[in-house]
Design a protein that fits this description.
It is built from 14 helices and no strands. With 302 residues, the chain is an all-alpha fold. The longest helix has 40 residues. The C terminus is likely disordered.
């Protein structure tokens, strides 16, 4: 349990610090940063697979067209999520990325209802309604939909839905997801250099080294997250996951100087309240299930 909590905190703390990391490359375009992230992630993951001698497991993980199709969908969704996130961070919209990842669990639940026919309790529906009010409020006050937050939440929620189909361990899944798009990313980087428009080569030496570590920064939090899921109940992990958008929000205000207005306060408060209501409702449901188990066992013994 303690190991699981530690793994979970490290994973979400690392994800929360990503805006600080991507800000190092603000002089580069989002597409170029994304291409580097994909290529270096694939290189790092393949090195790990060679070291752990899991080549056969990698190829056996995608036996049919259905799994390969799901992996391709995962690849496209996570690439879109990465691109939008990098662009938003370097366009000084870190606060909206935070809003998106606060919204993500609730949208994932909604997708579960729509696509997996999962049933919700009244409290959980109330939570979804509160989150919708938070989005509606900020939309009306600013006159535009918080499309960055919604797009981040939607792409990651659909990514999670697609991952349910493949159900692979973190490193193997990331390897396949980057295998599909790495050739495109590599060709794009080569074209930038040929045309003389690539900016990575102009980075200072230490920044170039940090960019090469994008693969480590992508793969290791996924590994830590996978270790946490093995050791913790989802309710505990659900609490820890809010560490990441909280760090992003604090970074936006105190590091990057983004304004946290009254409108933000109202909208965020509605979504924070929604997460609290949803978590309490979910925990009550699980507690009820646990309390019923001994009775069922006694009936079976009788």
């Amino acid at each position: 349990m303690k190991q699981g909590v530690l793994y979970g905190i490290i994973a979400y703390f690392a994800w929360g610090l990503l805006p600080v990391y991507w800000k190092l490359f603000q002089s580069m375009g989002a597409w170029e940063i994304l291409a580097h992230r994909i290529v270096w992630s694939l290189i790092f993951v393949l090195i790990m697979i060679v070291i752990t001698k899991r080549w056969r497991k990698l190829w056996e993980a995608a036996p049919g067209l259905k799994i390969k199709g799901a992996l391709l969908l995962c690849s496209l969704l996570i690439s879109a999520n990465w691109l939008l996130y990098i662009w938003a961070v370097n366009s000084n919209q870190v606060m909206e990325t935070s809003l998106g990842y606060y919204m993500n669990p609730l949208i994932s639940v909604l997708l579960g209802v729509v696509f997996l026919k999962e049933k919700l309790r009244v409290g959980q529906w109330v939570a979804l309604g509160m989150a919708a009010l938070g989005v509606l409020y900020i939309t009306l006050m600013y006159g535009q939909m918080p499309w960055v937050a919604l797009s981040l939440a939607m792409t990651f929620a659909f990514y999670g839905l697609a991952k349910k189909v493949v159900n692979l361990e973190a490193m193997i899944g990331l390897a396949w997801e980057t295998i599909f798009v790495a050739p495109i990313a590599l060709i794009y980087l080569i074209m930038l250099q040929v045309n003389g428009t690539g900016t990575a080569i102009e980075l200072e030496g230490w920044k170039l080294a940090m960019l090469a570590l994008a693969g480590v920064g992508t793969a290791m939090p996924l590994y830590w997250f996978a270790q946490a899921t093995k050791r913790l109940p989802l309710s505990t992990l659900g609490f820890i996951q809010y560490l990441s958008p909280t760090i992003q929000l604090l970074s936006a205000v105190f590091l990057f100087g983004e304004k946290f207005t009254t409108t933000h306060l109202v909208s965020f408060s509605l979504i924070w309240g929604a997460l609290l209501v949803f978590t309490i409702s979910s925990m009550r449901k699980k507690t009820g299930s646990v309390q019923m188990n001994p009775e069922v066992a006694i009936k079976k013994q009788a």
